[in-house]
Amino acid sequence: MDRSYPVDALVALGARALEAAGVPSADAELTAAALVDADRRGIASHGLLRLPLYVSSVQARGVNARPNPTWVREHGAVAVLDADAALGQVAMAAATERAAQLAGQFGVAVVAVQNSTHYGAGAYWTERLTARGLLGILTSTTGVTVTPFGGVEKVLGTNPLTLAAPSAGPASLTADMATSAGAYGKVVAAQNEGKPIPEGWAVDADGRPTTDPTAALAGALLPFGGPKGSAVAVLLEALAASLTTASYAYQTEDIWANRSARMNTGHLLLAIDTAAFTSREHTERRVADLQEKVRASAAAGETTFAPGDIEHAHAQSHAETVPLAGSTVAQLVELLTSLGLETTPLEP
C-alpha cells in the first residue's frame, strides 16, 4: 500500500544516502531533488525507485562520485561536455545552464554530452529552460533494452524524448516520454510489485509477446507506435550518440546489470530563445492559446489534457507530500540501513 511522505524529508533522505556513498553535498541534493520531483509528477519509474541503483553504482565506481566535467569543444552556439562519468543530473545541470547562456547569445544552442549516466525525468531539465522563456528539446541514449520493429535482438535504448515550450498558462507545454512502449523503470517497478505489464510492451527471450516483467527484462522492450515509433527511436539514438564519443545502447554495459560499468551515456539538448524570433510574451501567449484549444476539444462531460497537464496537476497536488510504493519504501529502508543511516521518515 502506498504511503505519503514529506517532500523535504525525502530530498534530505536521498541526499544523505548519496553523500554517504561519497557524492558532494551540492551534487547529492541536486540529484535527490530531481528524483523526488519525478515522484511528485507521478513518474515513479524515474523517482526514488532509482536511488539504490545510483548509490550502489557510485560505490562500485560505475558512476563517478567526484567527477571533473570538461567542456571539450565550444564552437559558437555548440558545446560538448565530457561528464567524466558523473551522475546524469550533475551533467545535465551544467548542460542546461550552458545551453541557456548560449541561446541567449545566439538565439539557439545545441549542447551534447558524452561520458554521462542516467539523468532522470527529462522534463526536470527542459522546465529549467521554459522558466527562462526558452523552448527545449532533449534526448539521450540509455542501456540496451529495446528491439527495433520486427526484431528480437536488443539494439536500442528507451531513448527518451522531451519537448517543451513555455506558456503564459500555469504549466509549460511538455511531452516527456520514452520511445519504448513502456519505460524501463516502469517494468522494473512492476517486477518489484509483482504486477504484470501491459500487452504490447515487450517480448521474452524467444521473441514471444509477454506481460511478465521478469520475462520482459530477460527479453526486450518494444518501440512505441510500430515502425514509425521504431524509426523515431533509431534516429534519437543517432542524435544522442553520433555527434560525440558516447556509446550506442548496443555498445553499453548498463549499471542495472553491472554496477561498476561506465555507461558513457550521450545526451543532446537544444535550446531556442523565443525572444530571438518575436518575443517571449508572444510565444507564451500563443502556446497558452494552443493548450486551451486542446483542452476545449473534449466531448461534453469529458476531459482532454494538453501534454504535461497531468504531470503538472500531480506535482501541484503533491507539493508537500509524495506517495511512494511499498516496494520502493522497503528498498529505501534496506539502502539506508546498509549505509548506517536512520530510516526516518520512512518508519511507520
From TrEMBL:
Q: What is this protein called?
A: Ldh family oxidoreductase
Q: What is the lineage of its organism?
A: Bacteria, Bacillati, Actinomycetota, Actinomycetes, Micrococcales
Transmembrane segments in this chain: where?
none
Family the entry assigns: Belongs to the LDH2/MDH2 oxidoreductase family.
Q: InterPro entries, from UniProt?
A: Mal/L-sulf/L-lact_DH-like_ah, Mal/L-sulf/L-lact_DH-like_NADP, Mal/L-sulfo/L-lacto_DH-like_sf, Malate/L-lactate_DH-like
Ordered alphabetically, the record's keywords are: Oxidoreductase
User: Which SUPFAM superfamilies has this protein been placed in?
Assistant: L-sulfolactate dehydrogenase-like
